[in-house]
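Tutorial handout. Part one gives the primary structure; part two gives the three-dimensional structure as tokens.
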Amino acid sequence: ERELEAIQFLLHKSIPGHEETFYEVSETEIQPGDIVLFPIENLQSLYCLFKHAAVYVGDGEVIHFQGLKDKSSTGWVSKEGFHALKKARGKFQIWRKRGGIKVNEFRARVRQAMNSIAYYDLGTNNCIHFALWLLGLEDF
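Part two.
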């Protein structure tokens, strides 16, 4: 079921069991809680479906979750500059949760994530699940 959540978000910008849907916004409209989707560099043939997710936190920064290159189950959460990530990853789309987010809860989750150890699994605990958790829509 968790594998399907990420795929449904990528295909339909919705989440099973939630009425919330997402809509696309431009870079000039970006605000905290917006999900930024980048192509995954090693999957060019699947460019249309699989994306790497980061969440805009404000002040020109994004937070995201990645697996380690050594294929261990450990992942890492990092914050970095949005412009630097755009330069490194290229094209992107920005999606906003319809109805907005609870900013105080979002900021608390960002602080919690920055001080946590997370385990990465491509199907059940990935960057999409992390982004949706930050918005209060998924477990992580």
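Part three, for discussion. Strands lie at 22-25, 35-39, 51-58, 61-67, 74-81, 93-97, 118-119. The mean pLDDT is 86.
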